[in-house]
Amino acid sequence: MTEPRFPPAGACDCHVHVIGPKDRFPLARERTYTPKNALTADLAAMLARLALDRVVLVQPSIYGTDNACMMDAIAALGPRARGVAVLAPETSAAEIDDLHARGVRGLRVNVASVAALSADKLRDALSATARLAARNGWHVQTFLPTEAIAPLAQAFLDLPVPVVIDHFGLLGPRHAPEAATPLLRLLESGRVWVKLSAPYRIADDANDPGIAPLAQRLANANPERIVWGSDWPHTPAHGHAHVADDEELPYRDLDTRTLLTAVRDWLPDPALQQRLLVDNPARLYEFG
Predict the structure, then answer these.
(1) Which residues lie below 8 Å from residue 105, measured CB to CB, with a gap of 6+?
(2) pLDDT at 242 over 90
(3) DSSP code of 288?
């Protein structure tokens, strides 16, 4: 019997970044790290090498609310690309509509990469972002510590748009089994999605054997609300303090292909792989 194609046709990497060229797209003055260029051509080569047909670009913290670099990459990649932007609360309806026409389908609230916020301030940020996202039926994507999920669970459910939680919700093998309960309940609600992405952010070893059971628990909670992402180009570890110079930090030395093929170990059922990599991203990001 012939093995099914992996990745399946239409597979999507739902979490990548493009950076630079920095002489054309300068980084925000207030940022917490300085990476090297990771160009659109580099991303296209990675997608071709891994036989991934679709991609979602996510605005990195180092560009603040200037989405020009990401939008340039989406234009170059064409209909196979979508974007998750970062916008100021006062962004006009006309600008939001323009971004929608050009491929944006979500807005990001990034907490884990920037600084700790109180639960009240984070609720306010989520609410303000959701108001912008609701105009065109976008979702709100958030990157936050595991410990913040339970206090914000009701706020997620009360938003007028779906929520996507990055990188396993930073829930890892080191956490007690019951720590997953808030995230599992949110998945079961159908209002919240989780990215099974960047396992190296939740364990010292991206191949930690504890990751597969976690991925299976999340998939079992709601197989219609999970997507996968590589987190290419694997931005360097960094703190929350603003950097004062342009010294470039190296990207993490990771094999993106290995991150993709781990999906087969996490979720051996080809039908579930199809949902994770193709069907669910097509709905969430409105791929034709």
Answers:
(1) 56, 82, 83, 84, 138, 139, 284, 285, 286
(2) no
(3) -
CA–CA separation, 48 and 42 (whole Å) = 10
96/266 Cα distance (integer angstroms):
37
pTM, two decimal places: 0.96
From CA 234, how far away is CA 254, in angstroms rounded?
Answer: 7
Burial class (CB in 10 A: 0-12, 13-18, 19+), 163: buried
- Cα separation, 213 vs 39, whole angstroms: 35
Alpha helices in 105-195 (DSSP H): 119-134, 149-158, 181-189
User: Whose CA is closest to 156, among 115, 112, 114, 188?
Assistant: 188
109: which strand partners? 142
Q: Do 201 and 235 form a contact (C-beta atoms < 8 A)?
A: no
Q: Tell me the mean pLDDT in the region 85-99.
A: 97
What is the CB neighbour count within 10 angstroms for residue 160? 11
231 is catalytic: yes
User: Over 60: is that where the pLDDT of 113 sits?
Assistant: no
Catalytic residue among 42, 231, 246, 279: 231
One-letter amino acid for residue 146 of the chain:
T
14-33 pLDDT tens trace: 999 999 999 999 999 989 89
CATH topology of domain 12-241+248-284: TIM Barrel (3.20.20)
Query: Above 80 in pLDDT, residue 119?
Result: no
The DSSP line for 37-81 is PB-HHHHHHHHHHHT--EEEEE--GGGTT--HHHHHHHHHHGGGE
- Give CA–CA dist 115/3, Å, rounded: 46
Tokens of residue 236, six digits: 């360097």
The helix (run of H) or strand (run of E) holding residue 87 is none
What is the C-alpha separation between 139 and 108, in angstroms, rounded?
9
Q: Where are the domains of the chain?
A: 12-241+248-284
